[in-house]
């Protein structure tokens, strides 16, 4: 492994346990890091994101005050953080399944389970230096690409972002260029967010349409349709005052109009359904700069069908867990089959 020089690395350390902070500070200091800022809570640490150019963040993820995952998400999605691409290691005492789901969705680079050894800390930092994954951007996620395979119907490009921890560790850091490289990374993320938000709006609408036609409308369909407002608003926030924004606003107005109708009527007739479909697919095609709207709609429907299959699998698994255990005699009779 290449020798790493961690002098000059800027570290943010967040943990409510002062003993853990002291232990981590000692381990990091022995690795050569001296510029370490520490806080007990993410609320106290928040302002530091827009100050020092951080290279490495270690943040507690455990409840009740361990809103570390929200902190990480805020960092990754931030337009104001000095370095939203800092290496991030989340720490926890309890790597439960629920916590692992939140970890995967947060944008963190790695997870460190307490109690830990100095070697485990060293290995995770070195992994960010040597093997950091490129970023992937979806409507709700910015961070390292952990997908084993892309989801059906979606071709999402990877984004290369600056890794200042690696640059400093390998003696490649150039202060005169870091601002430009971070700005480029943010611009690439923003461009992908625009595309992914457009796709997400179409996805939510196409998923909801069959249920909206029912009387009364399907509850899950309504919930998914009303979620359109979140990516739609962030999409508009990310667009500069250009012709593209003007065109997007036209589709956004049409979508809001139909959303208001559905809210008031609690029902969507054929005209509303078709208007929602046209506006959603039109918006997705516009943000992706694609003219092949039929092919794009097919991609959205493939993604929707895959999502429905996953929902069915989850429902079946929950039903199986909730089903009462059959008596042993009844099980044996079923396995034996009918008498001859």
Automatic annotation (TrEMBL):
This is Response regulator. It holds the Pfam family Response_reg. Residues 318-340 are annotated as: Disordered. Keywords: Phosphoprotein. PANTHER family: RESPONSE REGULATORY DOMAIN-CONTAINING PROTEIN, STRESS RESPONSE REGULATOR PROTEIN 1. Residues 10-129 form the Response regulatory domain. InterPro entries: Bact_response_regulator, CheY-like_superfamily, Sig_transdc_resp-reg_receiver. One of its GO terms (biological process) is phosphorelay signal transduction system.
